[in-house]
Amino acid sequence: MAAEGCEEMSGNGELEESSAMEAAEVPAPPPIEMAEMSEENGSAAIATEAPLDPDPAPFSLPPATEDEEGELPTDFERLWKAAHDNPQDFTSWTDLLQYCEQEGHITASRRALVAFLARYPLCYGYWKKFADLERRAGYNNKAEEVCVQGLQAIPLSVDLWIHYINLLLGTLDMNLPESPARIRSVFEDAVAAAGLDFHSDRLWDLYVEWEKEQGNMKNATTVLDRVLKVPTQMYNTHYDKFKAHLSSHEPKEVLSLEEYEELRTLCRQSQKAERAEQAQEEEAERPPGEEEPATPEGTDTEELMQKIRDQVLVNRDKVYQDNEGEVRKRWHFEDAIKRPYFHVKPLDRVQLRAWHSYLDWEIAQLNKDTKDPNQVDPSQAATEGSEVTAQPQERSEEAVVAHDDHRVRILFERCLIACALYEEFWTRYIHYLEPQSVDEARAVYKRACEIHLMYKPNIHMQWATFEERHGDLTEARRVLEALEKSLPGLAVVRLRRAALERRAGQLDQSEALLQEAVAESKEKPTLHAFYSIKLARLLLKLGRNPSRARRVLQEALEISPDNDKLHLNLLELEVSGEPWASAEAVQECVTRALAAPLAPHTKILFSQRGLQYAEDYSNSIQSVLSVYEEHQKLLNELGGTKRGAENGDEDPEKLSKSDDGSAVAVSAQVPPTMPHVPITTPPPPVMGTDMSAQTGYGGYSNWYQQPQYGSYNYQNTWNYNQGYYPPS
């Protein structure tokens, strides 16, 4: 069933559906060199259509109540639970649907199809199965509603339009005067939505044949005139059908009154001129006294009818040639697309590049036409329901832009059928629409995030940014809250929510979100430390409340005493305070770190930091010497074989490389009476800066990744006062 629903689908992601029309053989590409394609304008016109609704209503057919069939089948609940526990598993859904179909249980089938199509609305095969299910059960109105819902979800589905039309043809009473009008209205909706599709030939053919069956030969001609301007796969067969249609009926029956009278007058004048010339020749040879045979006035001879037909074809031939040029320019793009329907299986890179290339080209054609509308072929313009005239008028720049913009949108919509699971194409479509209409761009975000990409956080966060940028903070909040419910525990979403509130001036709400995250993550020490650091920084830098920030970090250290990032952030908080009030707190922080289960080189780092602080800000030499002695003891305990180098036993003339690669000469001479004892503290970090890596929202693992402690390079370059301390 899965294969029937997706793998055997045709042009727009639908199953091949037999219809009243027999599909003609696929023609060969136009016989013109492909090298010429890139230089020509790539657009064609049909009757003016309304653009596709960018916000199709989601499928919301209410679940059917229990009917006379009684209880659900035995294995339904098990398969239903399997599908809902893992909604991204397409196979679980198809197993459920196949089981319901085998059981023939209408209530179970309804429930399964409603749930499945809400998640995978681009699978035409299952819309058809649903409609057929309702029709077989005698619910024609429900079957029609299913088709309408399906077409709202996938308006480019030629096969679903044909299925809907055949459903109406089989259920409506065609003896009622309103029935043909309704069928014609549906045909117009169909060609407006899907008529520009490269594979829309069967829809146009069905429309023409239906008009013929109704005896409306002029309407059939109008439809043929419109499709002659559409670059489709079977473009040449439409012209052949136009010729056959014209030759099998009197011109008066198939042409509009205006065109017929115009061509009739033109051909009569031509015929009179020919007859006058012929009469002069015959009069010279006619026997004396014999008069010219009289021709009844107002009689349309077969010769005149043929002249009219010939003139009609002369006019249409120009349209056909122009359309063939448009097909030629698109043929290699269309030929490169091997899977134009929806499937959950990934597309290969070649297919993704093919769609990008096609979109690039179509947008380039729009830009070219916008810049130079005078180069556009006037035969490509037409209005809805209009007929081709002998002298087409030039279309305005507005008509050029409107038409070609519609063609670009059609191609995007086709692309988003095959590439519905690739956010890059949704994002590209939104970027195309946003300069034209914020509402249309928002509707595409809604389709992408609420139907096809429910578990892709990046595009949801882009949507929230979009809403915030356009001033709708309420919607931005809703988007992020919905994402957090779908993907609970994703830290970047909570941080985005807190940042949104902070930018909106709601600092209390931002703080509350981080506090909630801290409280909820106590069972996950790493995540708890992550949120605690974020909350402490908010309280310190924006709330100007160091005591609360200190308390947050201290509470976090009770849960994660081995987290060096917590120790480091607490140390930086204390160091950033006033020197005369922070000395004791700094040393307490260092002492806590030295007592914690941290790595030896990390403890040395904290000890060096405490020694540097004492040297920079202490008012008592005794306190400096006391800290120094403690540091030397730590080096003796943890320094190991590196003790000699750290105490400056290296050649004082050697160059020491700094972190930035520069070389610093150590030229200070040691007094002969003083030992060579270094200061082993690093340079102080820039206060007020975030010690974490500034990598943006994407790299969660690197946010608090500290530099390698060895990169501080505490060597003899810091021996600027080597004789300051007495020997230890």
Structural notes for this entry:
- It contains 29 helices and four strands.
- The protein is mainly α and 728 residues long.
- The chain has a domain at 1-14 and 74-174: Tetratricopeptide repeat domain (Serine Threonine Protein Phosphatase 5, Tetratricopeptide repeat, Alpha Horseshoe), CATH 1.25.40.10.
- A two-stranded antiparallel ribbon has the order 1-2. A two-stranded antiparallel ribbon has the order 3-4.
- Strand 3 and strand 4 form a beta hairpin.
- It is elongated and about 150 Å long.
- The chain starts with a helix and ends in a 63-residue tail after the last strand.
Compact description:
The chain has helices spanning 2-7, 76-85, 90-103, 106-119, 124-136, 140-153, 158-171, 178-194, 201-213, 217-227, 235-247, 251-254, 257-285, 302-336, 349-371, 397-418, 423-433, 438-452, 457-469, 473-486, 491-503, 507-520, 525-542, 546-559, 564-575, 579-595, 600-617, 621-638, 643-646; strands at 9-10, 14-15, 655-657, 663-665. With 728 residues, it is mainly alpha-helical. Helix 5 runs antiparallel to helix 6 and helix 21 (491-503) runs antiparallel to helix 22.
